[in-house]
Amino acid sequence: MSDFPKAVTINEEGPREGFQIEPGPIPTSRKIDLIDALASTGLRQIQTVSFVPPANVPGMADADAVVAGIERRPGVSYTALWLNERGLLRALASRKLDVFGTIGLCPSPGFLMRNQKRTPEQNHEAQRKILQMYRNNDVPVRRGGLMAAFGCNFEGDIPVSRVVDMVGQLLALAQEAETALDYVSLADTMAWATPASIQRVVGEVRNRYPDLRLSLHLHDTRGMGIANAYAGLQMGVDMFDAAVAGLGGCPFAGHRGAAGNVCTEDLVFLCDEMGIHTGIDLDRLIEAAALAEDIVGHPLPGSVKTGGTLRKYRQARREAA
Amino acid sequence: MSDFPKAVTINEEGPREGFQIEPGPIPTSRKIDLIDALASTGLRQIQTVSFVPPANVPGMADADAVVAGIERRPGVSYTALWLNERGLLRALASRKLDVFGTIGLCPSPGFLMRNQKRTPEQNHEAQRKILQMYRNNDVPVRRGGLMAAFGCNFEGDIPVSRVVDMVGQLLALAQEAETALDYVSLADTMAWATPASIQRVVGEVRNRYPDLRLSLHLHDTRGMGIANAYAGLQMGVDMFDAAVAGLGGCPFAGHRGAAGNVCTEDLVFLCDEMGIHTGIDLDRLIEAAALAEDIVGHPLPGSVKTGGTLRKYRQARREAA
């Protein structure tokens, strides 16, 4: 009936997502507090900041100071985002980040034009230049990403065959640059996925590229996030992006205030209960979720931080026995 | 890989759940508005009120007036809850409700004692008396229910074999009273279920009673509600309780304000996207969810009412083509 992985890797994107989208100014020290708290949970990969022009994203103006202030924990990979060489150089200059390259394509030309002002051909060329930039800076390329892989507000449903083709194009771009991707991330950028489409798309990509590691980036805007993660787990997917407490929101939803990324602690709860190893201490992660909520100053969408875990009930039961 | 049903029946419990748990007094006319709005969506079963002593549940003091005010729609089954013959007689006196009997057992003796102050033996006897009460009042018995079928705050994990046995006990009680149950509802009363336990429990019950129709009552307190519904659908379950906008809350969660019942419009969105017929107009249902939120005066937990459906994007795409 299923092909569940024994263990999953969760890439925590809450700090970057949250600091980027939250309207209020968040003190640098509190950003550092959250990243340090997350690093103490057992998470092995944390996306900390975006190195983007402060004029575009005021909440990231202190990105260098945030990274400088992190108390690095061994075994944790601290990552960041950037959009150009200037940003990449800031990441490299920090000397505290795990700097690796990403290339990205998009099966929705409409979204690509709105989001990045490029045609598919222009985007292909841009990825070649990005690969060259990584080569020039001696940065390994690890990740390929497909945005809007499950549907798009501007293009509607995306044919699965196009997604499969584009995974092939990512692999070909990497090969052309004499490198190889560690994994390909399929992003449900605008929350179109359901468990059925997760199964369909992951299944078709897997059929064509059986040895390729896949990662899922899921949005919970329509409440399908955990169900979609479950469908991914059923297909053997062992790598997920997630955001503590559901930090981040979704700029493409019908309404402001809609949930964004699938919530890390809800995903860890699911894995824990299914016996899938995450390496993460759920109680500590819930403390980090409470901290995130305190920092942003408003309720965040995650469920387990409010509903509680089952641990105390099981423990009380064992003690009574 | 799966055994999805072609169509599902959703039993809307939002009005009863919401009016019962919301602290503020809700005007009778607004309760009626919500029930009438729900009846216009294509929902075929709506649980309207509880006939319980006003001293116990002040929000249900106007239950008779609410039912009297409903504008009945053909094809919609309006139901209610009661705890004793006095309540049943109120339901019968309304002459507007679809009155049918329910019996219930609980595989957690600890929860049974806390919730109903009965031992399992006493509860068995109580069900016999309830069956007799229905017989005396010429009321057909349709539904058997198991509370806490997936785990319990007071007993911890519940052995699947005990759930299977207890389903058998429900069937035997009905048979003993010379009646038969139309279906058995498995309730995740305290939100312990995950998709894995849904598959396990539903699978074992189905193995033992392959012809028995099963219904799921799922709580979303830990964010697993839709994933659990999906797991149920994968097992062929074709009947679900749900609450519009996620009305209801969960009195057993670790924190006040935790989500309760799985949200109707999120469940309908899931089914729509998977091609499973519900007979429900999702846009109208979202309007009813907005009305529910307006009536209670605070945000309710459902996602699709905030995130929006995909219909307008698909339509824009068709018009552009």
Span between termini of chain A: 35 Å
For the record, the CATH class of chain A is: Alpha Beta
Q: Order of helices and strands of chain A, N to C?
A: EHHEHEHEHHEHEHEHEHHHH
SS content category of chain A: alpha/beta
The CATH superfamily name of chain A is Aldolase class I
Low-confidence region ranges of chain A: none
Total beta-strand segments of chain A: 8
What does this structure look like?
Two copies of one chain form a homodimer. The first copy, chain A, is α/β, with parallel strands linked by helices and 321 residues long. Helix content of chain A is 44%, strand content 13%. The first copy, chain A, has helices at residues 14-21, 28-39, 63-69, 85-94, 109-116, 120-136, 160-176, 195-208, 225-234, 264-273, 282-296, 304-307, 311-320; strands spanning 9-12, 45-51, 77-82, 101-105, 141-146, 183-187, 214-217, 239-242. The first copy, chain A, has an eight-stranded parallel β-sheet. At the A-B interface, helix 8, helix 9, helix 10, helix 12 and helix 13 of A face helix 8, helix 9, helix 10, helix 12 and helix 13 of B. Chains A, B: This is Hydroxymethylglutaryl-CoA lyase. Chains A, B: It comes from Verticiella sediminum.
